[in-house]
Amino acid sequence: MRTLTRRQISVFAIVLILLILYPLFVRGSFPLHIMIMVFLFAMMGVAWNIMGGYAGMFSFGQAAFFGIGAYTSSYLLVTYHVSPWIGLLAGGLLAALAAAVIGIPCSNLRGHYFAIASIAFAEIVRIHFNNWKLVGAAEGLTLPILNQSLRNFEFHSSKVPYYYILLGFLIFSLLICSWVSTSRMGFYFRAIKESHDLAKVVGINFVRYRLAAIMISAFLTAIAGTFYAQYILYLDPESVLILPISIQVVLVAMLGGAGSIMGPVIGAAILLPISEGTRVWLGFKGTGIDMIVYGTLIMLISAYHPQGVWGLFSRIGERAPSAAHAAEQSIASAGAGTRDATSASPADRGGEGRSES
Fold it and tell me: Which of 144, 212, 303, 334 could serve as a FRET partner for 84 with CA atoms 20 to 30 Å apart?
């Protein structure tokens, strides 16, 4: 695992400062909404990346964890008046438990078999919630309108507090992903991704680390679900438990660069403005255009640069210093040759002239 260079750290710091200042200079709720959606799917993409990008568990079931987090906090708030912040932790833990329940029997499934199992799990969860009267069944849940405050996790007059809260959640997810990628756990995840059999031979506890990957991913995804419920103040199975959410999360990670820390953030920054823009500007006439663009981008990236956009940026960043270094070396060698030619003594040059004559 390569450590970040000073140049990359400087770029990250500048981008973070710009994001912090963004609401102070950009007015209007729609630009803020777009950025909130970018942060939301970037966070879910980072969560998926821990499981799919590092551990090689290609899942299409993230919507199940997203919905479990949203429903848990919302049900506790509506029924027992539990703080959404406590519901956020409860939803994360419940989603991690559900991930363990599905992860144990599927621990030996690989590749497309695991992907099919994850789709089946998400559909079972959706159908169950769609018929579960305790949580509103198909009608869903409407969250109460409370006094706006950080404690109540509700802000009616502005989207700015939601923006900063979700930015904090995204940074937290990136720190978790960075820790995983540089820890022993991350190296074990990569070993399992490269070869399940070889990982077993060298003594890696295959089931334990696959469970760890899916549980961490589920916990972070459930946090995003709780945020979405508090942001929208309404949820039903067709808004938080549908397959397109899982597909969009996978596309975000794959386009940006699965297996890299910042890849899902780049992917979300590209895809979500397209999705939200076509939805608002074209209305029903734009239905499906975002998926066409998604598919085109994914095909181009898969064909010409499978490492994703972040991998492309990294390669360009590596080429620039190496090209500059090569130019410096060539200039230095040319200068050395010139100095050698001009430093020859007149006698030597004269001797060379006589010998030629």
Answer: 212
Q: Is the pLDDT score of 120 beyond 60?
A: yes
pTM over cut 0.90: no
Of the CA atoms within 13 Å of residue 94, those in its CB half-sphere come to: 22
Residue 332 lies in a domain: no
List the structure tokens of 278: 């076509």
The Cβ-side half-sphere exposure at 244, using a 13 Å CA radius, reads 9
Q: Which amino acid appears at position 83 of this protein? A: S
Cα 108 from Cα 100, distance rounded (Å):
13
Radius of gyration of the chain (CA): 26
Please count the structural domains in the chain: 1
- In-domain check, residue 353: no
Residue spans of alpha helices (H) in the chain: 6-25, 29-48, 62-80, 84-103, 111-130, 160-182, 184-194, 196-201, 206-232, 237-240, 243-256, 263-281, 289-304, 308-342, 346-356
Amino acid identity for residue 272 in this structure? L
Q: pLDDT of 183-193, one tens digit each? A: 999 999 999 88
Please report whether residue 354 resides in a domain.
no
pLDDT tens string 253-294: 988 888 889 999 999 999 898 888 777 776 655 566 767 777
CATH number at residue 307: 1.10.3470
Containing domain of residue 199, as a range?
6-318
User: pLDDT digits over 55-95, tens only?
Assistant: 999 899 999 999 999 999 999 999 999 999 999 999 999 99
